[in-house]
């Protein structure tokens, strides 16, 4: 049974002795963000906030954006891809599944590289893997060769996932002061998820959405938002055999054009990062950034004893591991229910708006939560509850308990994805607080590792013959609902934040802290 003292700490009880030592040994001070001057505080620590932190954040975010866009290429154009390369739903699922597979294989190595060698030595090789992965996809459009190379490309892109998913809190801790960390993580995460959103629009725009209805005689081209809509009219006048061959060739050509665009953009981002992307600033931006973290492997091993951090990792792995992979195969999901009348293009727009909502939600919640950093548990709980309700409505539409309509489908999918993904920056930052003084790289590496294990298991179900798709929707609901009691059980301390605020551990009660005395700042 929990002690009375532990019950007084409903959100964050860690290693009191270690935090007290860190606090006593640290220097009291604060960083003024409006200048680029070095601020000297008591002791020997010199703190400085660099304006280039925004450039570093932007480039890292674009790296994550590109990695996500490459990963989510095939789901939004699944109908065309299946016809062009003779693929099945299982093939589409496995192309997405290479991300989690690669993460499970090397997901603990790259966070080590991030901590030991710094941001540059982790980001440059990762972005290189993304670029080479896109190169593999443009070599040929031959059915057999292209299929093999595309699988290889997706795996290489997946290797870049550990740094992309888990590196954002590390970057914010290295480059940003305490009062900007949550905001920086939210901005980076938001730009990153836009990479998953772009293929939902760009894919159907560049690639035709499958065969036209040949049973209908028409003198006008069918309505389509793809760049090849006019070709449907030409093909409808040809013999059925020629129609199929010509359509497949057109789809392959359009897919290859899409691959060239992706490859060019990935190459540009890689070149910019290669030219300039510093590992860390010359001076730390805050006190906690100057404190030496535990060694990576010993720190990673020590996480097993931090029960509330492990609980948070399970929450993140189960919920977001399933939901993000569920969203990546949304077109496969909706195409199984003809009564919804949702085609590939419409499914793409639903997915796009869902992730766009996640982008806006992450920014809003991240900025709002920065003002109430000790209330992160409450924000996460509310968003998970509302998200579960949205996904339940979506599932009830598909089993025809609720009448189907575009409005309900849009609102339920967009609302569910927006709410649960808006909690991601908070989960990252909360994980860093619970794990401190274990490094942010080790903590978020473990979080995202479990996330990818969850995604791998979810997508692997597609290998079961005739499994259908309705199981996806019940699983999505269950993955969120099962996390609700675990969120309620979270306790602990805001260890890292207390170091930055120089708050004595004896003053911490019920998520409230005494305001520290005015800081004495001397400019150099």
TrEMBL record:
Which subcellular locations apply to this protein?
Lysosome membrane
Q: Which domain of life is it from?
A: Eukaryota
Q: Which reaction does it catalyse?
A: pyridoxine(out) + n H(+)(out) = pyridoxine(in) + n H(+)(in)
Under what name is this protein listed? Disrupted in renal carcinoma protein 2
Does the keyword section mention Transmembrane? yes
Q: Does the keyword Iron apply?
A: no
Listed A to Z, the keywords are: Glycoprotein, Lysosome, Membrane, Transmembrane, Transmembrane helix, Transport
Q: Which GO terms describe its cellular component?
A: lysosomal membrane
Membrane-spanning residues where?
A: 54-74, 94-114, 121-140, 152-176, 183-207, 258-277, 308-329, 349-366, 378-402, 408-430, 442-465, 471-490
Instruction: Report domain Major facilitator superfamily (MFS) profile positions.
Output: 305-524
MF terms from GO for this chain are:
transmembrane transporter activity
- Similarity annotation: Belongs to the major facilitator superfamily.
Functional description taken from the UniProt entry: Mediates H(+)-dependent pyridoxine transport.
CDD domains membership: MFS_DIRC2
Grouped into one coarse class, the protein's main location is membrane
Q: Indicate how the chain sits in the lipid bilayer.
A: Multi-pass membrane protein
Cross-referenced Pfam families: MFS_1
């Amino acid at each position: 049974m929990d002690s009375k003292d532990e019950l007084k700490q409903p959100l964050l009880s860690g290693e009191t002795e270690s935090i007290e030592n860190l606090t006593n040994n640290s220097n009291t001070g604060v960083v003024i963000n409006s200048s680029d001057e070095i601020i000297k505080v008591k002791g020997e620590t010199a703190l400085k906030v660099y304006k280039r932190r925004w450039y570093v954040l932007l480039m890292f975010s674009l790296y994550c954006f590109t990695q996500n866009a490459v990963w989510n290429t095939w789901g939004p154009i699944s109908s065309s891809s299946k016809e062009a390369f003779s693929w099945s739903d299982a093939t589409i699922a496995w192309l997405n599944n290479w991300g989690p597979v690669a993460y499970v294989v090397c997901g603990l190595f790259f966070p080590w590289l991030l901590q030991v060698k710094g941001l540059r030595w982790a980001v440059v090789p990762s972005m290189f893997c993304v670029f080479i992965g896109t190169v593999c996809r443009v070599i040929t459009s031959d059915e057999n060769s292209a299929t093999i190379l595309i699988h290889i490309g997706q795996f290489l892109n997946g290797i870049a996932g550990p740094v992309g998913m888990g590196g954002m809190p590390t970057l914010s801790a290295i480059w940003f002061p305490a009062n900007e960390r949550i905001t920086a993580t939210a901005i980076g995460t938001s730009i990153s998820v836009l990479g998953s959103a772009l293929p939902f629009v760009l894919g159907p725009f560049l690639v035709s959405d499958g065969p036209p209805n040949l049973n209908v005689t028409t003198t006008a081209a069918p309505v389509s938002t793809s760049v090849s809509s006019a070709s449907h009219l030409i093909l409808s006048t040809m013999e059925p055999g020629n129609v199929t061959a010509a359509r497949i060739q057109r789809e392959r050509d359009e897919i290859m054009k899409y691959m060239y665009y992706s490859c060019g953009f990935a190459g540009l981002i890689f070149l910019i990062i290669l030219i300039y992307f510093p590992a860390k600033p010359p001076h730390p931006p805050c006190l906690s950034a100057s404190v030496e973290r535990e060694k990576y492997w010993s720190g990673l091993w020590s996480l097993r004893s931090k029960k509330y951090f492990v609980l948070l990792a399970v929450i993140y792995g189960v919920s977001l591991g399933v939901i993000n992979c569920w969203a990546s195969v949304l077109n496969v999901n909706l195409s199984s229910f003809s009564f919804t009348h949702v085609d590939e293009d419409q499914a793409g727009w639903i997915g796009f708006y869902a992730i766009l909502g996640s982008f806006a939600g992450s920014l809003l919640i991240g900025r709002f939560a920065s003002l109430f950093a000790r209330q992160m548990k409450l924000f996460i709980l509310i968003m998970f509850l509302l998200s579960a309700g949205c996904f339940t409505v979506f599932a009830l539409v598909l089993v025809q308990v609720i009448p189907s309509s575009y409005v309900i489908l849009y609102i339920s999918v967009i609302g569910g994805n927006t709410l649960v993904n808006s909690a991601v920056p908070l989960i990252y930052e909360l994980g860093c607080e619970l794990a401190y003084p274990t490094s942010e790289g080790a903590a978020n590496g473990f979080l995202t590792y479990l996330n990818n294990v969850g995604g791998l298991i979810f997508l692997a179900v597609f290998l079961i013959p005739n499994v259908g798709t309705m199981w996806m929707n019940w699983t999505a609901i269950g993955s969120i609902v099962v996390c609700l009691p675990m969120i309620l059980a979270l306790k602990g301390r805001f260890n890292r934040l207390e170091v930055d605020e120089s708050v004595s551990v004896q003053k911490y009660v019920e998520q409230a802290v005494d305001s520290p005395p005015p800081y004495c700042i001397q400019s150099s």
